[in-house]
Target: Loganic acid O-methyltransferase-like
Amino acid sequence: MSGSGSDAVAVVESYPMNGGDGTFSYNKNSYFQRAATNLARAAIDEVIAGELDVKRFSPALTAFRIADLGCSVGPNTFVAVQNILEAVRRKYESQGLASQLPDFQVLFNDNVSNDFNTLFASLPSDRPYYAAGVPGSFHGRLFPDASLHFVHSSYALHWLSKVPKELVDPNSPAFNKGRVHYTSAPSEVSNAYTTQFTKDMATFLSARGEEIASGGIMVLVMPGIANGIPYSRIPSGVMFDLLGFSLMDMAKEGIISEAQVDSFNLPVYAPSPDEMTALVESNGCFSIQRMDLAAPQSKIEDSVGGHACMLHLRAGMEGIISKHFGSEIIDDLFDRFLGKTKEYSDRLNSAFLQGSQLVAILKRK
Model:
């Protein structure tokens, strides 16, 4: 990935979701993310109706550009952009500007290793927009100056650009021995994650500040955590603990080595509303329209079973786990994980009642 002009951008790690359309594909197992999209829809409709200044863009505007960052392979990205597009169309009509409705262009972005073939093959045939793929990391520039009018990103920004190197250094106080995440880890470990997320968000907000036209809207949906709540109390935190327990069991049985577990960390982070607010204010390009935490459980019809959690985690994490441990352990690992979800079902179910989805709606000044 390269930056605009002469700005060199460091190579960013990429962690693609499971491609294709098989049993363990992201395409078949992105139910929780769909619930997230549904949960955010009302907030998006509201902000477009109240805050999107289409008169500022019209009448010279020929194309209204929507970017979905970290789009993965569908189908959720198509649902999200269709919702946005319909809300923008309603806004034009409510302002008496139906005759000035521009063409819509949707820019689907993800890392170069994303399965764009599946994405493009499953694009809705009757879509009311022009579609384009934009490969590259959103931790740097992707689009021309002031070319975007609406940016959406759901369940993508929690991926760090890289694992903090001190986590795998046995001589560092942040060495994360026997765990795969900062859940239930000492403060030195969580601080290393926080520092990396802070850097990543600074570059993300700076890039978007240049790419979004004045008056444009950005909606960020990601795992979040209430101010002052330990990460071990939210669903992904519980799941990452159980994944770590399963890997350590395999290490004790000699299937993998403990050193392999010690050198593996999941590069994901869930910020609190206070953290995100401070990062946005520090950037200075955006005004905050909303910064809310919600419990996705309210949009999931059934109680969340261990099997659903296993499929969800496998679709999202199989790639990164296989790369480190080899693909031959995957079936065994997730069978063990499934067993742990039964053993810890009370902890998992109570976690799903916590507010653990952050919706940040920002407006370009």
Notes: Residues 328 and 365 are 51 Å apart (CA to CA).
